[in-house]
Design brief:
Number of strands: 4
CATH class: Alpha Beta
Bound molecules: iron/sulfur cluster
Oligomer: single chain
Radius of gyration: 13 Å
Order of helices and strands: EHEEEHHH
Number of helices: 4
Amino acid sequence: MTFVVTDNCIACKYTDCVSVCPVDCFYEGENMLVIDPEECIDCGVCEPECPADAIRADTEPGMEEWIAFNARYAAQWPVITEAKEPMPGADDLDGTENKLATHFSEKPAAEAA
Ligand code: SF4
Ligand code: SF4
């Protein structure tokens, strides 16, 4: 079992989740985070920290697609270990349906200066 990041994280990056993860298994895309399912120790502390309710246990129905999604992008994006400012407009987009189709970027996060 693992936890996975789902649609409502897109365009958010509140990153409250990153601050609490004991094993640094969050990875950062241009406008979303994912969890590496292989590294996640299933502690669950990140799940209630997410203001967007985007972190889910993989035992919930319909999560198969998101497990594969998290694994795919965790292998491509850089690790993120410290919280940062949310993205501009994060609050306005919170709760928007199916951001995957309309807002997702496959690009990795820009390297920190
Ligand atoms: S707090 Fe939730 S929505 Fe924000 S970056 Fe973390 S997983 Fe994504
Ligand atoms: S469940 Fe624990 S180990 Fe897994 S991503 Fe969340 S905080 Fe990290």
